[in-house]
Design a protein that fits this description.
It is a single chain. About 40% of the residues lie in helices and about 15% in strands. It is an alpha+beta fold and about 200 residues long. The chain folds into 2 domains: about 60 residues, no CATH class; about 130 residues, 2-Layer Sandwich (Alpha-Beta Plaits), CATH 3.30.70.3270. The chain has a 3-stranded mixed β-sheet with strand order 4-1-6. It has a 3-stranded antiparallel β-sheet with strand order 2-3-5. The longest helix has 27 residues. It starts with a helix and ends with a helix.
């Protein structure tokens, strides 16, 4: 009785092993995005399918999260950077479980604090990609990136991302997560309209 079950299991394993190569023959041409999605979907369920990385790469889902980045407005023509969304409130650094975020707040000429970070560092070797910084940010100023190819031979400099490397325009976020960005934009627009309506109602009184 037990021997029959083992034979059935081995037969199933061998069937999947053989179908792996038959499916590869069917997809022997250069994979298109639609072809790759079909090959990696549950509908395929044929053989042991893998991706020939780095020649082939799976498309990242919108909610994939890796190292955080700072959101800024799209730069004006002729400029390298736009206005930061970050106000250096420090909430992201406080909620970060491994404490891998360091922020240095900017100062105005009169010495008063400026609601913008002068320096912003994230040690990606410590970051656990939990996304708490993004979830708790009250200004939507920090998002989780999709770039996971960050290996290098120099950890001391290449793996500590500074503000210049972390800052990316809002158009970048809209490109990698269009549905989420559109939803967030709709929420911000609704909140601004509600504030404007409340302000107008107070003016009438």
């Amino acid at each position: 009785m037990y021997g029959i079950g083992i034979v059935k299991g081995l037969r199933t394993t061998m069937k999947h092993f053989i179908r792996t190569y038959t499916v590869d023959w069917n997809f022997s041409d250069k994979l298109t995005e639609e072809n790759l999605l079909e090959r990696q979907s549950l509908k395929s369920a044929a053989g042991i399918i893998s991706v020939n990385y780095p020649d082939e790469k799976l498309p990242m889902p919108e909610r994939f999260r890796f190292v955080p980045f700072l959101v800024m407005n799209d730069p004006a023509p002729g400029q390298k950077a736009g206005d930061d969304w970050c106000t250096s409130c420090g909430i992201c650094a406080k909620v970060c479980p491994p404490q891998c975020i360091w922020i240095e707040r900017g100062k105005l000429p009169n010495g008063r604090p400026k609601p913008q970070p002068e320096q912003f560092y994230i040690d990606i070797d410590i970051c656990m990609n939990c996304g708490y910084c993004s979830e708790f940010c009250p200004f939507d100023a920090i998002k989780m990136d999709h770039d996971y190819e960050l290996a290098s031979y120099d950890r001391s400099s290449a793996h500590i991302h500074d503000k210049e490397r972390l800052s990316k325009p809002i158009s970048y976020w809209r490109a990698i997560a269009p549905e989420r960005a559109a939803g967030e934009e709709a929420i911000r627009t609704a909140e601004e309209e509600a504030k404007a309506a409340k302000k107008a109602a107070r003016g009438k009184k």
